[in-house]
Each structure stands twice: as structure tokens, then as C-alpha cells.
Specification:
With 879 residues, the protein is an alpha+beta fold. The chain contains 26 helices and 33 strands. 40% of the residues lie in helices and 22% in strands. Strand 5 and strand 6 form a beta hairpin. It is globular, with a radius of gyration of 28 Å. The structure holds O-methyl-L-tyrosine and zinc ion.
């Protein structure tokens, strides 16, 4: 059962606030010791508010100085302040100005919510509920106000003073202080407020919008890192142009600023006109950043920029609607990357991420709908379900409505809801109206948790030339949702004939079939195609058109046929994965693979590698077996991660060792002297070459260990160096320890973002001794336990990428992580809660591991005084 506590917030309880803040005049006086915040809030009663209705403002860790209304100080009895609120007992029933003065202490703010210091810089993070840690406010997304912000700070330590909107005044404030005044003309919720004060370098550029307006662009960063911001700037300009082309959306202010900071709980934040970024998603240079980093920067820069329309201009009415902005914006950033790079490669990568991050969430104790109906702690709902499944839901809408229909709906959404805080219902309504369709059943995707299982069987009748597909969908119960209903599944498909080309048919009965798509909206359907001259192989769920897990019951021969002939690249890739998965799962269940079946897969891999029509990036993805976690999830219960690891390793060897020569030749042919470039073709080339290296090392090919060491030493960019290092450490080659030491000494020691790579590699080694090594890192007095990037690289990698050591049968991994969570919870509850989510696999493990996990989680529960973030995850994990 879902846990319910006195702090549980329910969607059904949503009510408009009795008052609204229409404008906020904020005056910050920043000093080394503390920050004084004076707020003048212009407030009005909402229609229907009765006289005498108290005004309750949110607050958190604020030291209240004074309170006044319309300039007159309030007597003590006229207001009350406690740990979470300021109540004005009887506010006037007309427009008035509430003036408060509070003091906050950014330097001691290790939660990194509200105003805090990162390095020497003062910066803010307000989503979801951080603004209340800056001043008393109606800290809810449906209160839109215009902000004017005056910042006064010491000139020497904070020469740069930034906030949202436009700079309207600046000058000297005496005593070594200076000031700046910023005004944002667009009404916004408090979660989009931002302020930065620090000694920062910057790069500048400009973008001219389609309608000819010049926008000044700047990226601020630590001095000396300016030249590492160029890729981010390039990505920003391409994002701005793309949103105009693809969605007709122009930027609306004259300034767009980005600031990179080193201490940040998430990736980045879309504050109006002043995005704040985790610096790992800004800084890139070939010697320190990998292709994956370049990719992440381009994606997240685009994501935050796209929020300007989907999130800022149109925001969420309440936090239950989070996926209104997040699912839609992830969809938009995925489309951007698809248009800029390779669409099939992007689709495969996104599905790999979905399966690795969202499916386990949906199938475990933390499952929740994309639009949840209750929460204890909203920060625990910035999840793969809200983001990635949210994007899949939008993608299905686009698939069902077609490109033009989807665009019509989006246009209506922008036209109708600009300047509003709105809901999923309103979002769906514009698509229904613009396309004259009923989306009532489709809405269930937002309300129902769990990954539907789509089972397929088929038959062919040669006499009548009919082909029949039987489709069945089922979703398992999830916490709080024992009953599930049928969803609308758009299943893109084709029937492939014996010569490898797509077949047509003359008639269809029994289902909703639209050209290349079956729409299944019932629990099951039997669809018969007539006029089919020979037995086809069905290619189903092309492009992964719905986020389901599919049992297709195809034979290995049919899967390999698809791997060779399917014109949908996604399903070609999927077919190879399915063959590998089938062999691995059967072997773990006790049915070893036959020589013939492994040989057939090996052959298919060889053909993939040799193909002159497939591109390198696609080949790199195709030449792989499903990850251990993916295999475990397919098995679903009584998992023994050691056995999964062992069997996968043996299968990898059996499939790839016979290709040693082909792999080596291809590897050598892909070597390049060209200078590093982050374009799709160069990235694809490196990814295939590094994939081959990893396969050669993992399948014990002769000379591979030395080749990895050679690539490591001779690498001219971080992509190649890190790939050689992790190929060696994952297989724990005789060189691995030495290479790890070298990487630390020569690359990681002086660059925190490179150190993160070393931490992640170190924590992912699937060998005994790793826990002791991580403990030693944490025990080093120089290790910054307040920095989320460092902690996540170490502990996130351990819990998510090292199943054999995290889920050790003796429970040592679980105990270690539980102790870590208890300790870090006191410093940064968001980081602690996120690391704790790694335990979500525990119900699927075998008995002894389940018992060990329960003991560790139970021990954490008895610790007492856990943060709300961690207590919420823990309660759901154990429910
Ligand atoms: N809206 C941001 C995500 C975000 C959420 C919370 C944060 O701080 C605790 C920071 C960022 C995005 O989608 O990028
Ligand atoms: Zn977002």
C-alpha cells in the first residue's frame, strides 16, 4: 500500500489560494556573513475571499525581522510565524503591500535549495519549493507575479550581479558595495526566480530572432573556463533556431543568460532569462569531456531553453502537473537531437535510457503515474517516469495525430494557454479540439502507473491467404493501484515478406489498423489481414511507438531475419537485442544455448559490422548484448546478480570471440588522426571503435588488454581515454589497477569533472574490494561531501552500475549504502534520497539478498530524524 502521512498532499485537495501576489519587489543585501531580504509584495484577495480570511505565506529557515502592511508595522498579534509559514491574521480585503524583512544564511545552506553559495558564488535554486527559503511567499506555481530585484553585494567578491529579465539600473552603493536592479516583465511563479552574485568570467554572443530582434547571449563561469563554454553557446543558438523552425516559438526577452555553478542538485534549471546549470553540463573541451558529455550539454542546453515556452510562458497549475512541462520539454529536446543528429540512433538511445531508468521504477516499489495524485515530498517526483515516460506519452500523441495534427494542437496550446498555469487536462483538450478526436481513454497514460506488457502471437492460413495477429495488453498492479485498465497503444508495424520487403494486404478485420499503425485500445484484439500471399514476419512496435514491454514470441530465425531485413532501424537493433536476451535468459534459467544459436547471433553481428549501409553509431549500439540490469528485469524475480553477470560474460565471449579478427580490423580501420570534432559522424566513429575495443577486451581476444593500454596512453581526447580505461576496469584486466591510478594522478586530480569520471569508473568495478576502495575515497578529508556531482558519481554509479557488488549476497553493499544515506541525509537530503532509490530492485532479488536489503533498510528506518525526502523514499520502499 501507498504510505499516507499527515504531510501527504493530494491532487484532489487543490484549491485556488484566497490571495494572490501580483508583484514582488525584492531587495537583497548580500554580505559574507548573511543576506538580508526585504520583500514588498503587492497582494490582492482572489474573487470570493471572505473578510477575515488569513493569508498564509510559505517560509523555511527564515529569521523574521519585521512585517508591515502599506508601510505600517504590524503589531505582534496581527501575524504569526512558525517553522513553515507566516500568517497574516486579518489582511485587508483589497489590494495592499506586505513588507517583510528576513535574514538568511546562504553559506550554511548545504541543501542547495534557496539561496546558497557554490564556490564563492551566491546562486539560487527555487524549483520546486526553494523560494520559501529566500522570503515568505505564496510559493506555489499558480501564483504568477512580476518581479523587480535589487541586489547589493560586495564589489570585490561579487562584481557580477544577475537576476531574471532586463538590467535596468546599476551603480556604486558605498562601503565597497555595489548594486544592480533587474526587472522581469513576464509574470512568473516563484520557482522560476533566480539570482546570481559572484566573481565570474563570461563569453558573449547574440542571436537574431526570426522577427529580427537581437538577443544578447552570455554564459558565465569560473574565470579561466570561458573557452570551455563554446559548445554550450553553439548548442544554445541552434536550439533557438530550431524552436522557431519546428514550433514557431521565438525567444521573448532581450537577454538570455546562463550561469555554470559547481554545486547543483540536478542538471540545470530554466529560470526565466537566467538559466543556472550544473557546470558538468556546460564545460566541454576534448581533453576533459567525452562525446557523451558533449551530447548531454547539447541536450540540456536545449531542454532548458525550450522550457521558456513549455514551462515558463505556460507553466503548471500545481506540482502534480509536473510532467506537463517536463514530459513535453523532454519530448521537444529529443526531437531537437533527432533533427540535429541521427533520428534512429537517438531513438535507440532514448529507449535504452527508458528501459534502464524508467521501467525499473514503474515495476518496483516507487512506481507512480506520470501525473501522480499524491506526494509527501515533491522533490522525489523529478523522476524518469515524469520526465521520460512523460515524453513517451507526448510522442504517442504525436504518433496518433500525425505531424500536422500534433502541430495544430501545439499551436492551439500556445495560443490558448500563454501566460497561464495549467493542467494535463487542458493540454489534452487542445489536441482533442484541434483534431476533433476523443482523448479520454488516452488520458489514462497519465494516471496509471506500470509498464504494460504486450503479448503477441500469430498464425498464417495458406489456403485462405490470411494472416492473424493476436494482441493482448496487461499491466500489473502497482502500489496504490491494484486495478488497471486498457491503454491506447499505437503499434507501428509492417509485415515483412520472405524476400525482405514489406507486404501489403487487401483487407483487415478485427482491429483499428491505420496504414502503418495498429491502435489497440482494448485488453485484446484479433486482427486478420486477408490477401497475404505468404507467411510474413511481423515487425511490431516500430520506432518503439509505445512504452510497453513486448513478448513477441518470434523464433530466433525470425528475429535474425528482422535484424537483417527490417527497414525500421529501431527494430533491426531490437531484433539483435532480443536474440541475445533470449539466449541469456534461457541459460540463467538452466537451458544452455546451443552452438548453432550462438553461431547464428555471432554471424548476424559480423554482418552488422561489415554492412556498408548502416552507420557507425548504429553499429556501435547494435554490437551489444542487453545490459545485466536489463536481463535481470526480464527474469523479474529471484534474481542472483552474480549468475546474471557470469552468464552474460560467457555469452559475450561466445558471440564475440569468434569475431576477433573482424573486430580488430574494423578497430584499426576506424582509427583517425583527425582533430576532435563533436559532430554526429565523428562521434559515431569513436563510439564504434570504442565499442569494438570493449568487446575485444571483454571477450578475451588475444592482445586486447595491450590494445586498451595502448589506446589509453595514446588517446588524444577524453572519449578515447575513458573508453580504454573502462574497458579495462570492467573486465578487471591485469592493467586495470595501474590505469586507474594513472588516470587519477594525471587527469583527475586537478579537474573535478574528470575526477567524477574516475569516481564512477572506480565504483563500477565488479570485483570484491570495491566497497573498501569507495570507503577510502569517502574517508579522505579532502573529499567534498557537500558536492552532489562527486557523491552521485561515486554512489550513483555503485548502486546503479554495479549490481554484483551493491547487491552482494552478504549484504555488505546494502549496509554500506544505507550508512552513507544516513550520513549524507544530514547534509543534502535530495542527494541522499536519490541514492537510496537504488534499492528499488530489492523485491526482485533472491531470498538471501532480499533479507539483507530489508535489514539494511530497516536499520536506516530506526536511525530517526531522517529528512522528509529520505523518509518518503524509505517508507515507499518498505511498504
Ligand atoms: N526543471 C529542471 C529540473 C530541476 C528540478 C529541481 C532542481 O533543484 C532541486 C533543479 C532542476 C529541469 O527540468 O531541467
Ligand atoms: Zn525540465
Amino acid at each position: 500500500m501507498r504510505t499516507e502521512t499527515e504531510q501527504t498532499i493530494y491532487l484532489k485537495d487543490y484549491a485556488v489560494s484566497p490571495y494572490r501576489i501580483v508583484s514582488a519587489d525584492l531587495d537583497f543585501k548580500i554580505t559574507e556573513a548573511d543576506t538580508r531580504v526585504r520583500a514588498q509584495l503587492t497582494i490582492e484577495p482572489n474573487p470570493g475571499t471572505a473578510a477575515g480570511t488569513p493569508l498564509v505565506l510559505d517560509g523555511d529557515e527564515l529569521a523574521l525581522g519585521s512585517v508591515a502592511i502599506d508601510g505600517a508595522p504590524l503589531v505582534q498579534s496581527a501575524y504569526a510565524a512558525d517553522a513553515t509559514s507566516l500568517t497574516i491574521v486579518e489582511p485587508p480585503l483589497r489590494r495592499f503591500v506586505l513588507e517583510t524583512e528576513v535574514t538568511i544564511k546562504p553559506a550554511g545552506n548545504t541543501k542547495l535549495m534557496g539561496l546558497y553559495r557554490s564556490g564563492g558564488t551566491w546562486c539560487t535554486q527555487c524549483e520546486a519549493e526553494g523560494f520559501r527559503r529566500i522570503t515568505y511567499y505564496l510559493d506555489r506555481p499558480d501564483n504568477l507575479a512580476v518581479f523587480k530585484v535589487r541586489i547589493t553585494a560586495p564589489q570585490a567578491v561579487a562584481p557580477v550581479l544577475l537576476s531574471n529579465g532586463n538590467l535596468i539600473e546599476q551603480g556604486d552603493a558605498g562601503d565597497g558595495m555595489h548594486f544592480a536592479v533587474w526587472e522581469d516583465p513576464f509574470p512568473k511563479p516563484s520557482y522560476l526566480f533566480a539570482l546570481v552574485a559572484g566573481d565570474l568570467g563570461s563569453i558573449t554572443d547574440s542571436f537574431t530572432t526570426a522577427s529580427g530582434r537581437k538577443v544578447d547571449l552570455a554564459i558565465y563561469c569560473t574565470h579561466g573556463k570561458e573557452d570551455q563554454c563554446l559548445w554550450a553557446m553553439d548548442s544554445l543558438k541552434r536550439s533557438m533556431a530550431w524552436d522557431e523552425r519546428r514550433f514557431g516559438r521565438e525567444y521573448d526577452l532581450d537577454i538570455f543568460n546562463i550561469v555554470a555553478v559547481s554545486d547543483f542538485n540536478f542538471g540545470a534549471m530554466e529560470n526565466k532569462g537566467l538559466n543556472i546549470f550544473n557546470d558538468k553540463l556546460v564545460f566541454a573541451q576534448p581533453e576533459t569531456a567525452t562525446d557523451a558529455d558533449y551530447d548531454g550539454i547539447e541536450r540540456v542546453i536545449a531542454h532548458e531553453y525550450f522550457h521558456n515556452w513549455t514551462g515558463n510562458r505556460i507553466t503548471c497549475r500545481d506540482w502534480f502537473q509536473l510532467c506537463l512541462k517536463e514530459g513535453l520539454t523532454v519530448y521537444r529536446d529529443q526531437e531537437f537531437t533527432s533533427d540535429e543528429r541521427s533520428r534512429p540512433v537517438k531513438r535507440i538511445s532514448d529507449v535504452v535510457t527508458l528501459r534502464a531508468a524508467q521501467f525499473p521504477e514503474d515495476g518496483g516499489p516507487l512506481a507512480h503515474p506520470a501525473r501522480p495524485s499524491q506526494y509527501d515530498e515533491i522533490n522525489n517526483f523529478y523522476t524518469a517516469t515524469v520526465y521520460n515516460k512523460g515524453a513517451e506519452i507526448v510522442r504517442m500523441l504525436a504518433t496518433l495525430l500525425g505531424e500536422a495534427g500534433f502541430r495544430k494542437g501545439m499551436d492551439l496550446y500556445f495560443e490558448r494557454h500563454d501566460g497561464e498555469a495549467t493542467t494535463i487536462e487542458a493540454f489534452l483538450a487542445v489536441f482533442a479540439e484541434a483534431n476533433d478526436v476523443d482523448l479520454e481513454q488516452f488520458k489514462t497514460w497519465y494516471l496509471q502507473a506500470g509498464t504494460p506488457r504486450l503479448s503477441v502471437s500469430d498464425s498464417y492460413d495458406a489456403a485462405s491467404q490470411t494472416y492473424t495477429l493476436n494482441l493482448k495488453q496487461e499491466t500489473q498492479p502497482t502500489p496504490g493501484q491494484p486495478e488497471k485498465s486498457a491503454l491506447v497503444l499505437p503499434i507501428k508495424f509492417a509485415l515483412i515478406g520472405p524476400n525482405g520487403s514489406e507486404m501489403s494486404w487487401t483487407g483487415v478485420t478485427g482491429g483499428d489498423v491505420r496504414q502503418d499503425m495498429i491502435v489497440l485500445d482494448a485488453a485484446s484484439a484479433t486482427i486478420t489481414f486477408s490477401g497475404v500471399p505468404s507467411k510474413p514476419v511481423p515487425s511490431l512496435l516500430r520506432e518503439f511507438s509505445a512504452p510497453v514491454s513486448m513478448d513477441s514470441a518470434l523464433s530466433q530465425a525470425d528475429q535474425l531475419f528482422l535484424a537483417q531485413h527490417d527497414s525500421d532501424p529501431f527494430n533491426r537493433w531490437q531484433a539483435l537485442q532480443d536474440v541475445g536476451m533470449g539466449l541469456a535468459v534461457a541459460a540463467i534459467d538452466g537451458t544452455p544455448w546451443s552452438d548453432a544459436s550462438v553461431k547464428a547471433l555471432s554471424q548476424a553481428m559480423a554482418e552488422t559490422l561489415a554492412s556498408d549501409t548502416l552507420d557507425d553509431a548504429f553499429k556501435a549500439l547494435a554490437l551489444s548484448l542487453p545490459a545485466e540490469a536489463q536481463i535481470s528485469r526480464t527474469i523479474g524475480k529471484e534474481i542472483d546478480p552474480d549468475r546474471v553477470h557470469k552468464v552474460r560474460k560467457e555469452l559475450l565471449k561466445a558471440v564475440f570471440a569468434p569475431l576477433a579478427l573482424e573486430m580488430l580490423n574494423a578497430y584499426l580501420a576506424l582509427s583517425s588522426e583527425a582533430p576532435y570534432a563533436p559532430d554526429a559522424a565523428s562521434t559515431g566513429r569513436r563510439s564504434l571503435r570504442n565499442r569494438l575495443l570493449a568487446l575485444m577486451v571483454a571477450s578475451d581476444c588475444a592482445g586486447a588488454v595491450g590494445l586498451a593500454a595502448q589506446q589509453y596512453a595514446g588517446a588524444r581526447n577524453m572519449t578515447d581515454r575513458l573508453a580504454a580505461l573502462s574497458a579495462s576496469t570492467l573486465a578487471w584486466t591485469p592493467d586495470a589497477a595501474k590505469l586507474l591510478g594513472d588516470f587519477h594522478a594525471n587527469f583527475a586530480a586537478n579537474d573535478p569533472l574528470v575526477l567524477d569520471k574516475w569516481l564512477a569508473v572506480t565504483a563500477s568495478v565488479p570485483e570484491d574490494g570495491v566497497i573498501e576502495r569507495i570507503q577510502a575515497v569517502l574517508a579522505d578529508p579532502g573529499f567534498p561531501k557537500t558536492n552532489p556531482n562527486r557523491l552521485r558519481s561515486l554512489m550513483g554509479s555503485f548502486t546503479l552500475n554495479n549490481p554484483t557488488q551493491f547487491a552482494r549476497a552478504d549484504g555488505a553493499g546494502f549496509r554500506f549504502v544505507a550508512d552513507f544515506v544516513a550520513e549524507v541525509d544530514k547534509i543534502n537530503p535530495q542527494v541522499a534520497a536519490r541514492v537510496l532509490t537504488g534499492f528499488r530492485i530489492w523485491p526482485m532479488l533472491d531470498q538471501s539478498r532480499r533479507d539483507a536489503a530489508k535489514v539494511a533498510l530497516g536499520g536506516l528506518q530506526t536511525k530517526g530524524s531522517l529528512s522528509r525526502n529520505t523518509a518518503d523514499i524509505l517508507a515507499r520502499m518498505l511498504a
